[in-house]
Design goal:
By secondary structure, the chain is of the alpha/beta class. It is built from 5 helices and 12 strands.
């Protein structure tokens, strides 16, 4: 199965999770994250602003604010295939961009250098227990992670854990995956 076909089938699997189960799974993933040493030990956390059917990150962002953490969210620069992170202090600093993603409005926020980020929570559609991930197809995170020295973690539903993925030389692994049922420490 090609990456494109796998993306399509993973999106279908995620969309088929019923609303009540989705809410419960998101809650359990959030709790696992909030009790993790990675969350507790990080002051500056990078996370995307989720859109269904991804694991909901809105409550995670709010919890970060409540705990006094610096929460930074990415903005895509498609022409450079690059992510720039901005500190988010208020949801009204977001704007809807291409593909209906919520991204920081660069007029209302300030950039944060990647070397200031301690915990990078990386999105994806599917993961192997070795930490390989199937992203959304732009390669943005693979490029970013190749030069990132902080902690890299992903949040996923059990439905997103797969036996294998098509792996390419530039694919970067995450070190930990948290699901509603377990913590997966990926072998590095």
């Amino acid at each position: 199965m090609s990456k494109k076909e796998r993306r399509k089938s993973q999106l279908q699997a995620l969309k088929s999770i019923d609303h009540i189960a989705f809410q419960q799974k998101c809650f359990e993933i959030e709790q696992r994250l909030f009790h993790s040493p990675e969350w507790k030990g990080s002051r500056t956390i990078a996370i995307t602003v989720s859109n269904p059917p991804e694991v909901n990150t809105w409550n995670i962002i709010k919890r970060g604010w409540e705990e006094g953490k610096t929460v930074v969210v990415p903005k895509c620069l498609p022409q450079k295939r690059q992510l720039i992170f901005y500190e988010l202090c208020d949801f009204q600093q977001l704007e809807q961009s291409y593909f209906n993603l919520y991204e920081p409005d660069s007029e209302k926020t300030t950039t944060v250098r990647n070397d200031c980020i301690e915990l990078m929570i990386v999105p994806g559609l599917a993961y192997t227990i070795r930490g390989y991930r199937l992203g959304f197809g732009g390669g943005y995170y693979d490029r970013l992670l190749s030069a990132f020295s902080g902690t890299v973690l992903s949040l996923a539903f059990e439905e997103q854990i797969v036996d294998s993925l098509p792996i390419e030389s530039f694919d970067m692994r995450v070190s930990t995956i948290l699901t509603e049922k377990r913590r997966i420490n990926c072998d590095h």
